[in-house]
Predict the 3D structure of the following.
Amino acid sequence: MTPGPWPLALRLATLAVVLAVAMVAAVRLGAVSLDTGAVLDALAGRGDPTMVTIVRELRLPRAVQAALVGAALAVSGATFQALLRNPLAEPYILGVSSGAAAGAVATVVTGWAARTVWALPAAAFAGATLSMLLVLRIALGVGRALDTRVLLLAGVVVSSFLAALIWLVLTFADIESVRSAIFWMMGSHAGATWRSVGTLGACLAPAFLVLLALARPLNLLAIGEPTAAYLGTPVERTKLVAFATATLLTAASVAMSGTIGFVGLVVPHAVRLVWGADNRALLPCAALLGAAFLVGADTIARTAAGATELPVGVVTALVGVPCFVWLLRRPVAA
Amino acid sequence: VFLSPSSHRATRRVSLLAVVLAAGTLFPACAPESPRGPDAAAARGAAGGAARDTAIRLIDDGGREIRLAGPARRVISLIPSATETLMALGATDRVVGRTRYDVAPELAAVASVGGGIGPSVEAIVALRPDLVLAWENDKRREVPNKLAALGVPVFSLRTEDTSDVFRNIANLGRLTARDSAATALAARLRRELDEVRRSVAGQPRPSVLYVVFNDPPMTAGPGTFIGQLIGVAGGRLAFDDVRELWPTVAMEEIVRRDPDVVVLPVGEFRSNAVAALRDRAGWRDVPAVRAGRVVTVPADLLSRPGPNLGAAARALRAALHPELAAGDAAPPAPRP
């Protein structure tokens, strides 16, 4: 709750500029090299129709999707870390990634994913939501109030169970299914279209607003549940709503882009290290930084090895870990 | 049950991932190597004046109909064996995009669009193809769907057995208006296979284990072109009763079935594969490995089912029946 060194407006403006730079780079750079003039023409819909397609139908929706997913994972991670008072908390902690993967693998193995474009994201979202409900059900069944330690354990065991199911199914699946499933699980924004971006945005916007509205109660919960209750926070309701919203945020992202690690764990920590833990500032800052980080990582993934695309999760970790270690070792200003 | 899970180890995720990644390189038609287009010139000569400007309608291997206004002139092939087939049909100049696995000198100037399974859509679109040849995958069609949404015609091919190879040759000939070259190529391959089949008639038929991947052991089933070519070349499969195309088999089942010969595809990256197999726990207990009955075939011939089908059959015959191989143009001698 200590005020950061910079006023919030300045922090947000700075991060918005960083995000804007990342977005410009994402649209400007790609396997096909285009000069700035050609990119501007293509954005305006002028000039070579092929280039217009590349910029407006391939690069732009992909950059927007990376930004949305990055923001969602960072906000979701920040929320989980506050709720669980655990620095290792991350968006997938309640079994969302395994649930989504179980749904995705089911559609891949049955061939449904190939017949209907929306089958895989829909099933991944359903799987993520169901696994969250299962985790909450288990945790709520133990004791009278929602114990976050039990919740963590329930998330871990449900996750392990679903992962085991996935590998059981894939063991007996044909090689094409296995390959498709693994590619999906590695995470990628390559499938982005304006429709997927629109759907994702429509899911994410209300969830962002709900979590922003919960920022103050989350601050109080981070101190301790009895204190928060004493100060008038409806503790159980806040926890349930925050868990559910953060999980749905993650579920929607995973459904569109697969599991992308590291962003949701480390971006909130980075913001907290630099600017403090006040969730009212942390959540919007983490959203912008997460968006910029993932857009940048995806741009590197698309361009670093020519036409061969790297898995974006590889880039987030390879680039993010050194940055984060530097932040950790940085002398903390008093 | 010999089809054991490949995931009995603690690092199951890693090992399964390894299988899948390996599938990208070892699996038929993906291996990086120098492709052979034997007799490409002969096929080119037979092409004749087959060009015609009529519209083309054809059903691809996924059951989807493709319509082209005329013969394809700007083709991007995401399948190395299809690229080789196009070259053998004398249509090299129609190929404007390839994968990074196509390293034939004739294709050096052709742009790469990345891997065959996860190519750069952007790079594909920028080449303005009028036809993209893609893997038929009935599990997920992310790239083909995306290309179709952008108005790029996609023809997908599936290659499992030798009849698929002949169908692909005919289809590729049709798409590029090289029908007569395709007919000539198919006739040549049939002749070559017949020649190999005749030459081993009456010979003993050793039981063969073809090693697609060594850990966990994966072999070629009877429904694959490799399984069929082994039959043509005078062998029989040790696992001729499996339904899977590329079954993962338990090591103890390999020991139990005791194949007469272990066939190991060897490419530039696996040159010490025989020694590695001999040192490997499990494999070194297979009688054929212990007794040195391991023979090698060039991986590049066996991994790209296309115009080199006959050469692949001859390589297998040379491996299984070395006594017959004397007259071959390129006998792949088993390495020490």
Notes: The first helix of chain A runs from residue 8 to 28. Residues 31 and 307 of chain A are 5 Å apart (CA to CA).
